[in-house]
Amino acid sequence: MLFGLAYLFLTHTSSGPEVSGGLVKNAMRNEKEKINSDGVSGLKRFWRKPPRLPPRLSPDEKGGKNSFGHEAENPSSRLKWVSRQQKVRDSFIHAWSGYKKYAMGYDELMPLSHHGVDGLGGLGATVVDALDTAIIMGADEIVSEAGSWIETQLLDRIKHKGQVNLFETTIRVLGGLLSAYHLSGGDGGMKLTRNGPKPAVYLDIARDLADRLLSAFTASPTSVPYSDVILRDSSAHPAPGGLSSTSEVSTLQLEFNYLSMVSGDPKYSLEAMKVLEHLKTLPKVEGLVPIYISPHSGQFSGENIRLGSRGDSYYEYLLKVWLHQGGSQNTNMTYLYDMYSEAMKGVHNRLVRKSVPNGLVFVGELPYGSNGAFSPKMDHLVCFLPGTLALGATKGKTKEKAMKDNLLTFEDLENLKLAEDLMHTCFQMYSVTSTGLAPEIAYFHTEEYSEEGLDGGNKTSKYLSDIIIKHADRHNLLRPETVESLLFLYRITEDPKYREWGWQIFEAFENYTKVDTGGYSSLDDVTHIPPQRRDKMETFFLGETLKYLYLLFSDSDVIPLDKFIFNTEAHPLPIKGAVRSS
């Protein structure tokens, strides 16, 4: 079995071109020029030595075009992806134009009624979420507009606003400010733009915001922070009911750690890391944890285990915080990788199943704990997992390089196989519907569970009978998780099908969610054409979805995976010691 699985990896075909060039405007100017926009030095290896040698390439597999069967890049295929990248950039500009016209300074755009709405505390979340996307795309006018608003308006908002959610504000606003700080040249960073304010402006505002958010940690009687903060008086309190989401309390550490790194003040990292150090001590089910935790007792609450909402980014940040802090070079952080590794074994053993009749691999839930019934329910949010598994397997290197350098353990190979299987399932959640867009939640037909008359509507799909979409779950919020994982799987496996899948998803967004007057809308029902629209454009469509699509179609040296870690809102932060000034 061991060698059979290894052989399956080695014989996986991955032919296709790789796009050269970084930012689209430069690539269009000279398609022959490869732009190494990261300006980074080599990163020392920081993963563990494998306990056994992985399989070797056979003589046949070493021959041909190259050892993994990639086709040589050619100008026409490169230009195809440059052109598609430009279309994503155009869509970002269209989304921003609607927001600027009707909702500038509000958290989110209501694209159908042409209004703005504050659903995230009133800190102009779309402005901050979109800024580093604009920097990466070279959308200089938007960088100037967003940067100017942040410089003149945001600090006053922070000082006078009321309640915000610790998690949402950290990942969107704090993460966005810190990423913009680095990408605009702060702390010897990349300086991808000369537009907008000086980098120190972003850092100063980030520190002011973080100082206020720290009250969520210091006001709690345990190491588990409260969920809500009153910004104007730097006070904090628990959510109604008293509980915090496990994912929320454990998805703060990348941002607070990086702020300590660039500010020189360790207080941010110390408070945030207390949470993970505490979680390490709590009982788990093969590394899997319930989705609620009490800041009063410091203990998990309930037994509901899932990798969807309220659970997802706990697992993501175990790996990413470890990588961000230097991986195996930092022995103080080894416990994080151990927790991640144990949890992924738990996923394999307790949550992975196959659908009938066609065997889609999916990750279900244990709503009543390890001794309760299994639920074949999978949130779209779970589609972050293929990308995380692939990143954990190769630590951001390509599969080809990792195998040639004997860096992959058998556990890594298993996780990479699961990543590819789940990636296929996540894409089928899109292609099985009439619109080509995924529902918020899917159920899977199994031997124990089935429902009739709840298919996705695409009668040509092979998997029509495998995926069940209940009426209450048919909405689409422009979520990024699938295209996020497509980026990771493409860069790591170099299989061009992941780019093609991303292009199909992008075209579906264009066909069914684009609003002529500016912006993009969520949908009520992805199984029906024409779909009913919802009057909401989430900030993550600009901050995550379009950024990941743009990078999927770009060259792999634009924000490389072995030198940057994306926070859970797609804000790239440089790995400790990996990035130097360009």
From TrEMBL:
Catalytic residue positions: E168 (proton donor), D312, E440 (proton donor), E481
Organism encoding this protein: Eucalyptus grandis
Compositionally biased spans, kind Basic and acidic residues: 58-73
BP GO annotations: carbohydrate metabolic process
Annotated signal peptide: 1-16
Lineage of source species: Eukaryota, Viridiplantae, Streptophyta, Embryophyta, Tracheophyta
Known EC number: 3.2.1.-
Record's catalysed reaction(s): N(4)-(alpha-D-Man-(1->2)-alpha-D-Man-(1->2)-alpha-D-Man-(1->3)-[alpha-D-Man-(1->2)-alpha-D-Man-(1->3)-[alpha-D-Man-(1->2)-alpha-D-Man-(1->6)]-alpha-D-Man-(1->6)]-beta-D-Man-(1->4)-beta-D-GlcNAc-(1->4)-beta-D-GlcNAc)-L-asparaginyl-[protein] (N-glucan mannose isomer 9A1,2,3B1,2,3) + 4 H2O = N(4)-(alpha-D-Man-(1->3)-[alpha-D-Man-(1->3)-[alpha-D-Man-(1->6)]-alpha-D-Man-(1->6)]-beta-D-Man-(1->4)-beta-D-GlcNAc-(1->4)-beta-D-GlcNAc)-L-asparaginyl-[protein] (N-glucan mannose isomer 5A1,2) + 4 beta-D-mannose; N(4)-(alpha-D-Man-(1->2)-alpha-D-Man-(1->2)-alpha-D-Man-(1->3)-[alpha-D-Man-(1->3)-[alpha-D-Man-(1->2)-alpha-D-Man-(1->6)]-alpha-D-Man-(1->6)]-beta-D-Man-(1->4)-beta-D-GlcNAc-(1->4)-beta-D-GlcNAc)-L-asparaginyl-[protein] (N-glucan mannose isomer 8A1,2,3B1,3) + 3 H2O = N(4)-(alpha-D-Man-(1->3)-[alpha-D-Man-(1->3)-[alpha-D-Man-(1->6)]-alpha-D-Man-(1->6)]-beta-D-Man-(1->4)-beta-D-GlcNAc-(1->4)-beta-D-GlcNAc)-L-asparaginyl-[protein] (N-glucan mannose isomer 5A1,2) + 3 beta-D-mannose
InterPro entries: 6hp_glycosidase-like_sf (IPR012341), Glyco_hydro_47 (IPR001382), Glycosyl_Hydrolase_47 (IPR050749), Seven-hairpin_glycosidases (IPR036026)
Superkingdom to which the source organism belongs: Eukaryota
Keywords attached to this entry: Calcium, Disulfide bond, Glycosidase, Hydrolase, Metal-binding, Signal
This protein's pathway: Protein modification; protein glycosylation
Annotated protein name in UniProt: alpha-1,2-Mannosidase
Family assignment from sequence similarity: Belongs to the glycosyl hydrolase 47 family.
